[in-house]
Amino acid sequence: MSRRTHRRRLRISDFSGRSLPGSPPGTLIVDPDSPKPVIRVTAYSADRLIDREIEDVNVIRPLLSEWPVTWIRVAGLGDLQVITRLGEMFNLHRLALEDVVKVHQRPKVEQYKNYCYIVLRAVRDSGGFASEQVSIFLGKNFVLSFQERVDQSFDPVLARIREGKGRSRTAGPDHLTYALIDAVVDGYFPVLEEFGEKLESLEEAILSEPGQFFERIHEMRHGLLSLRRASWPMRETMTILYREPIPLIDEEERVYLRDCYDHMVQIIDLLENYRDVASGLMEMYLSSISNRTNEIMKVLTIFTAVFIPLTLIAGVYGMNFKFMPELEWRWGYPFALGLMVIFAAGLLLFFRARGWLSSWRQ
Amino acid sequence: MSRRTHRRRLRISDFSGRSLPGSPPGTLIVDPDSPKPVIRVTAYSADRLIDREIEDVNVIRPLLSEWPVTWIRVAGLGDLQVITRLGEMFNLHRLALEDVVKVHQRPKVEQYKNYCYIVLRAVRDSGGFASEQVSIFLGKNFVLSFQERVDQSFDPVLARIREGKGRSRTAGPDHLTYALIDAVVDGYFPVLEEFGEKLESLEEAILSEPGQFFERIHEMRHGLLSLRRASWPMRETMTILYREPIPLIDEEERVYLRDCYDHMVQIIDLLENYRDVASGLMEMYLSSISNRTNEIMKVLTIFTAVFIPLTLIAGVYGMNFKFMPELEWRWGYPFALGLMVIFAAGLLLFFRARGWLSSWRQ
Amino acid sequence: MSRRTHRRRLRISDFSGRSLPGSPPGTLIVDPDSPKPVIRVTAYSADRLIDREIEDVNVIRPLLSEWPVTWIRVAGLGDLQVITRLGEMFNLHRLALEDVVKVHQRPKVEQYKNYCYIVLRAVRDSGGFASEQVSIFLGKNFVLSFQERVDQSFDPVLARIREGKGRSRTAGPDHLTYALIDAVVDGYFPVLEEFGEKLESLEEAILSEPGQFFERIHEMRHGLLSLRRASWPMRETMTILYREPIPLIDEEERVYLRDCYDHMVQIIDLLENYRDVASGLMEMYLSSISNRTNEIMKVLTIFTAVFIPLTLIAGVYGMNFKFMPELEWRWGYPFALGLMVIFAAGLLLFFRARGWLSSWRQ
Amino acid sequence: MSRRTHRRRLRISDFSGRSLPGSPPGTLIVDPDSPKPVIRVTAYSADRLIDREIEDVNVIRPLLSEWPVTWIRVAGLGDLQVITRLGEMFNLHRLALEDVVKVHQRPKVEQYKNYCYIVLRAVRDSGGFASEQVSIFLGKNFVLSFQERVDQSFDPVLARIREGKGRSRTAGPDHLTYALIDAVVDGYFPVLEEFGEKLESLEEAILSEPGQFFERIHEMRHGLLSLRRASWPMRETMTILYREPIPLIDEEERVYLRDCYDHMVQIIDLLENYRDVASGLMEMYLSSISNRTNEIMKVLTIFTAVFIPLTLIAGVYGMNFKFMPELEWRWGYPFALGLMVIFAAGLLLFFRARGWLSSWRQ
Amino acid sequence: MSRRTHRRRLRISDFSGRSLPGSPPGTLIVDPDSPKPVIRVTAYSADRLIDREIEDVNVIRPLLSEWPVTWIRVAGLGDLQVITRLGEMFNLHRLALEDVVKVHQRPKVEQYKNYCYIVLRAVRDSGGFASEQVSIFLGKNFVLSFQERVDQSFDPVLARIREGKGRSRTAGPDHLTYALIDAVVDGYFPVLEEFGEKLESLEEAILSEPGQFFERIHEMRHGLLSLRRASWPMRETMTILYREPIPLIDEEERVYLRDCYDHMVQIIDLLENYRDVASGLMEMYLSSISNRTNEIMKVLTIFTAVFIPLTLIAGVYGMNFKFMPELEWRWGYPFALGLMVIFAAGLLLFFRARGWLSSWRQ
């Protein structure tokens, strides 16, 4: 019953980076806590490749006219100027740019005249579930991706491009976009796996030992709820990407995007399954607590029921009547004690016959 | 168990302003409690602007032919004549006018020949959730907005027009309409944030201290239910606005309206999340109460179980048998007390071994 | 626990007027309990009007050729001959006629070659929720309405026609049909309002006083369920009426029918809200009962826990050992009593420290 | 707690007549428990009619060329040869024939080139809910119906044909098909009515008397679940029959089939209502049990609470102190008894003041 | 309460064979635990047939040009080279091949230019529910099927081809595909039947004997959940197969595929039914536990209530007052005992009158 002061606070929602009501549409406000952007440019054709971190966004423009595919990868949203200048360079709609910095967008696809804007939600499980917004602009000869911070999630994609394996170098920016989406979607599996393992160990624990599991199950359901909130719009987005005709995405790429869609559907299947399992765990936990109470109740019942008649016998022979023959008996005292033993044994036998002595849970 | 007399009454529904069954369609009845209307007219072109409060609605007509966009902003519905004359001036359908004054309409869009009628529901959290109807008529060169009372919600829009920032002066009445819708939609976020914070503090409280939270959770769920009742039709309305072709709304404005739609979807996502959380809190609260009862049960069990055998021992040596050797012993009394201590200690050890002495909640 | 003999029986369903399985389709069977029909004919043009009760249905035929709109209003379905002859006169399909007399139809719209058949469900709250079937046949120049009994629900419509207000006289039979539908739909609001008020007073009662509310909440949910069963098909019917092209209904009338649809949607919104509230009340009630039990449990615990050690002390000094020094003490008796008081006080302080003495509900 | 040996076994599912996995499609396997088929042929035109039971299916072929409508009614599926020869005679697809003998099909409509195959599920309540498959083949000039056993369900249809009432003789085989469907659909109503009455009497019983209702409610829900499983696909089938163009069904017959559809929708409405009511009953029953426990708890509390202090008083005056003035008093004994009465009365008054003596359920 | 160490671990999910996030699309990784593939080739025309196990996949190519239908049946996925070479031979998309070896795909149909790729999930109940992925490639003149291990599920199909029964030899590869699908779908029925029987015996057990059923019901629900996860996408797949035009599947085959679809719908109907039943069982079990607790509570109440007054009587006559006339009575002791008997009998009669002595469950 002790007051818990250090409990990890469950963040039910996060409104940081939300503009104030009444601010004009397309206002770019940078969250002061965002890390400064690190920009990496990778331009490649089938046989050549350049790949470097840059400081000044102006070096991008000449690359665009020179290389068939240029990938600009911005990690960190803490510098308004960089984002604005990229927006101008690629002629991006300011509402889209606003969505890039307000990092609580639902996953979605928006088609503009010269580019396609894709918002995704990436998840990771770094000691508690967390999610991050990934924004991708797909143009004729460029892919512009924004992440909230520097991480390794896109490194395998870069590695494949460097090695020039498969179609990674010969295909256009739509294939690169697919590869990024695929990396984001595949990132859901380890998180789910983590949840699955936690659920299994929790189930094990609930069945074998007493304890206070309510909060842990609650937290788990909370996490699954958050994951679900990320997954469903991801699925919708995947559906649009593989079903609706998007001019910038080649027919052949769609087979791949359908694969992403399939994965997302699988993820949601598992997720819903886990939610069911978590509900079942809560039920199981509450039932185990109630079983435990029943057990204690039973002990009390038997204890009380066995001792109460004995107390009565003692009380009877403690009465002060003048004429109580037993009191005078030579063996009166052992007789009384014997009576108590017989009573107690009789009751215990009676309770065993009714099956109340065998433990509830064998 | 004291009778609570000052409880804030939960308004389950509000039927004020509803016409009587059988009244002819299009009957305008003004709620006598409505504040008198305050009318403000803002007419602007790219380079010029007039903006003033007016008393007489007749001053509007000349403005309409002169200015590309005229915004008539009526706050307060307490004067039937004003509304009727505006209706005549803009040739509004009487059913639409009826909906303006009966302020319990569901959000909706209705297209008429020369104008488009949009009903929205604005929310605010001024010590308890409240909602207000906003009606907007969008015409070729005018926007006519009705609010239930004077408030600041549209002031930022007006400020932007005055400053002439962005497209606010150059775009037509459809952009102004969008700006008003955007202001209404953005008003949902602080209310949601308020709910989120209340939920978090409630969760904190339930986990750390005993108390009567039922009513507070109940009230919260009530509020979320009301907010939900406002939000879903808002979303439907947004869907129609950005998807269906409405002649008075420019193609370019649609991108902006899609943004409003996105916000509304986000709001509903959060809302449904909160509803889940609130259900979880109720469960958590009921479980904490039942845990507490279990705790008391356990104390009772142990108390009773420990004392009952001791009482029996006392009873036994209180019996009046003539021949009870212990009674004659020199150390009989300490022996009996010792027996009691041994019994009590044995039982306590037994209970500790079964894990019943460690508190349920560590 | 007394046997309740006078409980108002909850009618779970009503199968009266249902034909036997195997009876041929289109068989007209009149419920013997139906009241005899009262027929009122109202024929009007823009400037003239006749309106009278009739006995013989044959007087209707000449009116039809003479007046632009003739409204035949039948209240009471207890005379098979009247219905059959009206059916012949207007050439109505026998399945439609069968539906008129079997008054448990779902609301629906059926289009026939020369007329449109609309079934509605009207509700009222006359000491308990009740519903009634309203059948309307809309033809080119007539409206034929059937109600189960004479009531005032259509009187305001008639009054408006008599006064010739608005479009009531100039518009065709489709407008009259709309007016009747509107009257039926508006009749839902007072019933809902009644439910709302009952829910509020019930909530008030549950929170402030103990009592047996189960049955009342159960009855309320029952009533809401019935109302729901009437409302959803009404909404479907309204959707068809305002969306699908029905040749006999003018384009202009549709705006009005959309208004009816809006009302029906609002009604269902409220209804679903009430159902949620009623579920919440049940939960609240069950929780209040369980709180009350907890309260009693606590009193028992404290009582038992306080008295059991005292009884032991009394028992100890009631033992008959020869050598018990306290028994010889001059102040032995007060000492024992003092011991009891100290024990009792100590336990009470301990319980207060754990917060068990403060009432559960402040 | 006695082992119940004669409990009516709830058949959760029935897999009899299911072919083994891997058996070739279209394999006809006859359930050995099926009754032998009784075949009745009814051929009629507007003015003539023959109707007789036949042994040999070969007598059917000449009738087909002679009569406009021939109805072959097979009751009992226990003879493979009969079914095979009918299949050959009417050129029926072997998958359809397989469905005829495997009597656990879902209701459905299948169109083949020369005929239409309709599977229905008929229900009856003969001391517990039961269902039966009805298969109907509708051809240009024949109707071939299969039932699982001889019963009276189609007798009214035959009677109408014999009497030549209404369109029964003049219309084609599509009307006969409709009449059969109508008979099957109408058969749901008595079963529902039976459920409704059982629910009402159960509700009455739960509210007025204690008892073990769990199993009865459980069985009821079980039955409603089975009925539901039959009804929903029936509704789908009806939808197809009245909406989709089926060449063999005349436009005029559709009005009648829509009537069947309406009935089926009504049935499902009621059914879902009953399911809600049954859930409510379970809740009510569980709540009544918990109330009863509360009642017993209360009696225990009061009993214990009243007697425990009295026992203490007795214990106090049973102490053996030398110096206890009350023991010497002339009226000490009556004084002690009086003390007990005063204590007991005081406690009872205290409990009445808290409202614990008034019965929970008035 | 003993720690259970040998509990069968509920596999909540299985991620084996899942590629690492970031691995390039179409990467074939073979699960090292997969059994080595056994390849069997069956080529047939209407009058001839060859059928043998092969080691080298190169023997397949000449068969393809020679025989109208060649069925290559691969059982076991443990050899990457075999799969790759089959992929090259039939020109299969590498994403499809990837799905073949990652055996946790959802059932689906994918159309490629020259073949159609079908993924199915087969189930079996070999001491606990298990499922297996079946992949089928349908081409113009071949069927290529992959299973996870060697089993008998496709043997009946092979047997029919060998015997040349029905259309099995004359029809094309689409009929063979149908036969395989049919075999997979029919495999669901025994599993369901197993579940049905377990549910029935569990129900029987819960109603007749006490015990710890929670875990068993939980496991059952777990299994049904897994089965459900397999069944729904199977149904979707069947819908696509029989509804959407697939060039490689003949119109005539569709009738057969519709049959598979019907079976799948039936399976899901049953499954959902079972899930409802399992929920009901849980409810029933929890209610039976709570009834049992009530029973024990009652025994305690009666025991305590009966003995407490007797103890008081004994206490009263154990008091040491000087002037207690009863103590001097000749028959004082029998009088006291008689008083106890009368009290006990009176209480028992009182309890029987309230119906508390009759057992809860008769």
Can you walk me through this structure?
The structure is a homopentamer of 362-residue chains. Chain A is of the alpha+beta class. The first copy, chain A, contains 10 helices and 7 strands. Chain A has helices at residues 60-66, 80-90, 94-101, 155-163, 173-186, 188-208, 214-243, 251-316, 325-328, 332-353; strands at residues 38-44, 49-54, 69-75, 108-111, 115-125, 129-139, 142-147. Chain A has a 7-stranded mixed beta sheet with strand order 2-1-3-7-6-5-4, sandwiched between helices. The longest helix of chain A has 66 residues, at 251-316. Chain A is rod-shaped and about 120 Å long. In chain A, 39% of the residues are buried. Residues 1-13 of chain A have low confidence and may be disordered. Chains in contact: A-B, A-E, B-C, C-D, D-E.
Report helical residue fraction of chain A.
40-55%
Beta-strand fraction estimate of chain A: 5-15%
Q: Evaluate the radius of gyration of chain A.
A: 34 Å
Q: Kindly state the mean pLDDT of chain A as a whole number? A: 85
Most extensive chain interface and residues per partner: A-B, 69 and 74 residues
| Number of E-type strands of chain A | 7
Shape of chain A: rod-shaped
- Give the biggest sheet of chain A: 7 strands, mixed
Order of helices and strands of chain A: EEHEHHEEEEHHHHHHH
Q: How widely separated are the two ends of chain A?
A: 30 Å
Structural class of chain A: alpha+beta
Contiguous low-pLDDT stretches of chain A (5 residues minimum) are 1-13
What is the chains' assembly state? homopentamer
Q: What order do the strands of the largest sheet of chain A run in, or round the barrel if closed? A: 2-1-3-7-6-5-4
Number of separate helices of chain A: 10
